[in-house]
Amino acid sequence: MAEKIRIAMCPGDGIGTEIMDACLRIFGEAGVNEHVEFEPVEMGERVFATGDSRGVTDEAMATVERLGLLYKGPMGTPIGGGGKSINVTLRKTFGAFANLRHFQSLPGVDTVFSRAGVPVDIYVVRENVEDTYGGVEHRKSNDVVECKRLISAPGCDQVHRFAFMTAAKLGIDLVHCGHKANIMKMTDGLFLDRFRAAANDHPQIQTADVIVDALCMNLVLKPQAYRMIVLPNLQGDIVSDLAAGLVGGLGFAPSANIGDKISIFEAVHGTAPDIAGRGIANPTSLLLSGLMLLRHIGLVRTASVIENALLATLEDGVHTGDVRGEGEPVGTSAFADGIIERLGRNPAGQEARPVPDRDEPSFTPPVRPHVNELMRTFETTKSDVCGCDVYIDTQITPLELAQRIERICEGTLFKLTMISSRGTQVWPSGSPYTEVVDYYRVRFELRNPETMLGQVGQMPTVHLLNKVAEKFEITEFQLLKYFDGVRGFSLAQGQ
Ligand code: NAI
Fold it and tell me: If you ran DSSP here, which 8-state letter would residue 150 be given?
């Protein structure tokens, strides 16, 4: 007999143990343990309590790296202090770059759309590593803080390729890219460009893009118009929860965090401390995430059998107390019993999930890399320095700042071309109605770009920075470049 696939498993905190017990019992009864062995790992509040600010033991990290698969319940994040969310840490550390969630109408779950007879069946693919979730934040001045929003071409490519491959596998023929490229032309613009590039490899799939605010309205008005939506991290986070609301809440939303090497399958709701220990929590989200895990390792038949039993159970009105449905609610354990009793049964009133002929278990644990892999998308770009932005912490007026800066850059290769505050130009032109704060962007560009572009490296800008730093407090320095002749920086609002 083939060796079993080993999966790191952590029930998590709060209701975690109750819902994980229920899921593992259902898996056991459905025959999952013939192919799979779960290896418990230590994560969560107990680890935070030992003073480890990651909330994960070294052994747990090593086990997940060795096995390449983690099935986890919800985990509490300490509020305040140094502790960061374990969920975010794990996804980012292990390169689980795509978050896949499936939002589907479930029988017996009463929603606005179920009552209107509108079926919802949407996949959201959220980029999981980059964007503001880099958490790169600084206090820039007395009154201004900043969060850097990093979007990389390889990061976009990973998530878009995953979205199209998943759509192809699931038979989904329409994929939308949600974005805000009308405002963030470079970051969201890159995300959208790489979506279009990835789409070229899947001509059988229709694509469309939609601005994220319009998407939110459309999802509420006509969710049936969407099958799969791929989004940057923060927008994807918000749209995921909106989509969860369409199908009855977070309790019904499974989530998989997929990477090339390591993948994490988790419940999306939290630890529900208000009901922990009472045996009434709903295990559906963790169970559906577990079904994503089973499908990920080829247990496609068993996953469909369990899913049909879950649908039949809900259809029969067996549900936990958080679900708006008919009949008396049951506890976590009785709900799991209901599913186990119905293994092999299909829902009557709605289409059952097709059950493949057999399972084809297959998973190769990752081979530990020796170094951090550098990912590249654009190999041959030529970049030319054309100036720099210097960010200054000062309370003087834009006009006074311009006069002093112009004196500083006299006799250098660069001239002052623009000053902005909070992204809006306030010099050389602007409106006195534009309110400013103590954090200016001062833009220097080559005096003679016709002759000098491509001739200067970064050092002249660093010398200029030194001169500015003698007179002003610098909060940031940013080179300005053209990449293959294309401007690699945005204009100020009003420039
Ligand atoms: P929560 O999701 O734990 O609870 C919100 C509400 O939903 C509560 O009324 C709770 O009883 C209910 N609820 C959640 N899951 C349920 C389930 N399976 N069955 C029945 N009712 C359920 O969110 P909250 O209260 O904001 O966070 C509590 C803790 O969980 C925090 O420490 C937070 O950091 C953590 N958290 C962890 C997540 C994860 O591990 N993926 C995700 C979200 C929060």
Answer: B
